[in-house]
From TrEMBL:
Disordered: region residues: 1-25
UniProt-recorded Gene Ontology molecular function terms: DNA-binding transcription factor activity; toxin sequestering activity
Taxonomic lineage of the native organism: Bacteria, Pseudomonadati, Pseudomonadota, Gammaproteobacteria, Pseudomonadales
Composition skew (Polar residues), residue ranges: 10-20
Database matches in InterPro entries: PrlF_antitoxin (IPR031848)
Example GO BP: regulation of cell growth
Name by which UniProt lists this protein: Antitoxin PrlF
Organism expressing this protein natively: Pseudomonas arsenicoxydans
Amino acid sequence: MNDPRIPNITADNRVQSNTAEPMEAHHSVSRTLELLAADMNAYPERMLPVDTHLFDRITSLVGHVDVDLNSPLSAEDE
């Protein structure tokens, strides 16, 4: 899958990108963000803050994992 447009996300929540391409160049991302913004504008009452307990739980599960979306899955992951 080695798509240079897909950034690597490290355990410390930093994004490492190999391209200087602006986000607008990624049509699917831009379209998804547009749909999300439209939904947020239409239904602002559905917007809820992330509960600190949920955040702590998520961090405990995956907070220390580096994610490289460009690396292929291993055979045991498929």
